[in-house]
Design a protein that fits this description.
three-stranded antiparallel sheet, single chain, 40% helix, alpha+beta, 225 residues, 19% strand, globular
Length: 225
């Protein structure tokens, strides 16, 4: 999966991937998912709380930079109007933009694929038994059902900006074992970021990918306008 995003977003994610991992909750307890499971929905701050419990770096990106919004459209994730009843005899309805629970789980899965130590498992375990009884499922519900089988094995994600002129490449292995490789420009800013899962066998070998990226971007930079 390749996603076009701003160079600023790539730099923010790259910076946090290079920072030491720290869970928001040092006691290891997991409670933020409970209200989501009860309601079947989550507003943005509910998702932030789930992320915060396991990875403070991802929480910083979520709360202060909206860095993960780039994942919504490519993976067909969406917030929609969630209205609160009673509906029949009320002249005024109140609600919030919220995300359905299976999509919440899928959203957290995609943040995990970027190399962060977030974990949708409590939500997955809460809704998977009911999903297994259904005749039809959405793509996101299938992701929930197959999560443990496919975890850390999915195809890598590439975030790409329009900035060129690469001069260097750096690679780090994240706390959760993902390999993140950034293509840097002459100012040392990450303009392309590739993150691959520790158990994936679907991705182009890193050495050849780096060679291709450096050649392609340098050639594009040298082309006459």
């Amino acid at each position: 999966m390749e996603i076009e995003v701003s160079a600023e977003t790539i730099s923010q994610i790259w910076q946090q991937l290079n920072s030491p991992h720290q869970a928001g909750r040092s006691d290891g307890r997991r409670t933020a998912h409970k209200q989501i499971v009860q309601d079947g929905w989550a507003i943005n701050i509910d998702i932030q709380d789930v992320v915060w419990e396991t990875d403070d770096r991802a929480d910083q990106l979520f709360r202060h930079h909206d860095a993960f919004e780039c994942l919504l459209e490519p993976f067909k994730l969406r917030f929609e109007s969630r209205l609160k009843g009673p509906f029949a005899n009320s002249d005024t309805l109140y609600g919030h933009n919220a995300m359905r629970i299976a999509e919440v789980a899928a959203y957290i899965m995609e943040i995990e694929r970027l190399g962060f130590s977030v974990d949708p498992t409590p939500i997955v375990e809460a809704i998977r038994p009911a999903l297994l009884k259904e005749k039809y499922l959405t793509n996101h519900e299938v992701s929930v059902v197959r999560y443990q089988k496919e975890r850390h094995r999915c195809e890598g994600i590439i975030l790409r900006s329009k900035l060129g002129n690469p001069t260097d490449v750096e690679t780090v292995t994240t706390h959760s074992g993902y390999k993140a490789t950034a293509v840097l420009n002459e100012e040392g800013k990450a303009t392309v970021l590739r993150v691959t899962a520790p158990k994936s066998r679907k991705d182009f070998p890193l050495k050849y990918w780096v060679d291709f990226e450096l050649r392609r971007k340098q050639q594009a930079h040298l082309q006459p306008e």
